[in-house]
Amino acid sequence: MDRPTSDAQVMVAEARKAFFVMFGFLALVWLVQLANFADDYAPAREYGVVSGDLGSLPHLLTAPFLHWSWAHIESNSGPLFIFGFLAAYRGVLRFLGLSLLVAVTSGLAVWLFEGGNAETVGASGLIFGYFGYVVVRGLFDRHLIDTLIGVVMAASFAYLLTVAVPGTPGVSWLAHLGGLAGGLLGAWLFRDRTRRPSAKTPPASSGSSGGSAGTSGSPGSIAPAGHPRADLHKELGDLGLL
Q1: In the Cβ-directed half-sphere of 64, how many Cα atoms lie within 13 Å?
Q2: Per-residue pLDDT of the chain (242 residues; tens, 9 = 90+)
Q3: Which parts of this chain are annotated as the region Disordered (predicted)?
Q4: Cα 168–Cα 102–Cα 81 angle in degrees, nearest 5
């Protein structure tokens, strides 16, 4: 009976770290915007991603921190924090790897396919990457709670996909699409590879004429290994619901 408590404690600790990581990340983005604004947005022009320009390839890692205006950063801040937190609360190290992957795929999509030598900056590529990761992570990890979170996020923010398709005016849909692809890829690359132990049937109580305790039909029981609902019962047991 110690495992559900231990798992809950680990999850709460990781969620706490995720909150402070995203708070710090958002604070850094706003500090960069202050410097960007004070310098008449010269850093955004200098460190943005320009399609086909070899010199701007290193800017794949700087462009997400830069924005073209206060309205630009304000529109990105809320979704960045929400999706970033949900992407990070299962593990901050995994989240950092995901962020690097998404920054690269989002920037490369712009660098390879954007036309007109446009300079592209902004955290929206990261937002789309985190969104894609959160939506499908539970499926790859076979985790019930994360799957439910993904369903809720997909239903609530499906409209985001309208700015990841060709022809959207005023936005870099390629950065969005590249970030989304990176998030989906990251969900598979950073999936939980640990094998979860199979649920076992509790030992039956002896000396009772009314049948054995802990059978699959009794309340509070856990299905034995191989049972169709064994994985579901294991998830509920880890959460302390069985």
Answers
A1: 29
A2: 455 556 678 888 889 999 999 999 999 999 999 999 999 999 999 999 999 899 999 999 999 999 999 999 999 999 999 999 999 998 899 999 999 999 999 999 999 998 877 889 999 999 999 999 999 999 999 889 999 999 999 999 888 887 777 766 667 889 999 999 999 999 999 998 875 554 444 544 444 444 433 444 444 455 566 666 666 666 656 554 44
A3: 196-231
A4: 80
What residues does 50 pair with on adjacent strands? 119
Q: Which positions ≥6 away from 104 have C-beta within 8 Å?
A: 60, 61, 182
Domains in the chain: how many in total?
2
Compute the half-sphere exposure of residue 19: CA atoms within 13 Å on the CB side of its CA: 6
The CA distance from 237 to 59, in Å, is: 46
* Tokens found for residue 199: 């649920």
pTM of the model: 0.78
**Residue 237 belongs to domain spanning:** 201-242
- Which amino acid, 176? H
We report the CATH number of the domain holding residue 68 as 1.20.1540.10
Q: Is the same domain home to 56 and 167?
A: yes
The encoded tokens of residue 144 equal 């019930």
Per-residue 3-state assignment (H helix, E strand, C coil) for 77-116: HHHHHHHHHHHHCCCHHHHHHHHHHHHHHHHHHHHHHCCC
Name the burial class of residue 165, with classes exposed (0-12), middle (13-18) and buried (19+) by CB atoms within 10 angstroms of its CB. exposed
- The DSSP annotation for 182-198 comes to HHHHHHHHT---PPPPP
Is residue 126 located within the same domain as residue 52? Answer: yes
User: CA torsion 175→105→178→48, rounded to 10°?
Assistant: 10
